[in-house]
Amino acid sequence: MNIEAKRKIAHICVGLSIILTYYLDILKPKYLFFSLIIFSVFSILSIKIKIPIIHFLLKNFEREKDFPFKGMLFFLSGCLITMKLFTKDIALASIMILTLGDSTSFLFGAFLGKIKFKLNNLKNLEGIIAGIVFGFLGSLFFVTPIEGFFSSSISMIIEGAGLKLGVNDLDDNLIIPLVAGTVIYLIRTNFHVFII
Hints:
196 residues, mainly alpha, two-stranded antiparallel ribbon, 72% helix
């Protein structure tokens, strides 16, 4: 199994753990904040020191070109920001779309993809569609079908397009839950946020 597939499977496991514990009121946003601090310290230390278990995780689940724990740091950041910005049901649906949509998008696109996505030739249309479907199905545990469909569709299309800030790609672990949460919020408030 290649490293990207392993990363996505780990992504699903971590995401579902966060969703379940947050739903059951075991996980609080402050715990995610402390986890971010811990992973940040390990990230800095891992540049110079090979810490046994940490080194194993980095070797098996992290891209060599990225700084240590980049994926985990952005994933936890996306979850934490979403929890702080939105109500619990919106945050849970958004994290579910990130967890299932992003992972299945890669897995289906990499292994079954044949048609290139028009907005980004590095992505496959089959992957985008799989991400929308699985993100939508997961979101139904927390939001209405209309909210789930549009939030999953828009966030996965934007992720697939590969947004950039200057020459750098914006990390999908931040983009997906923020876009999904914003779409649900706008639908729920009938876009009144734009009315003065």
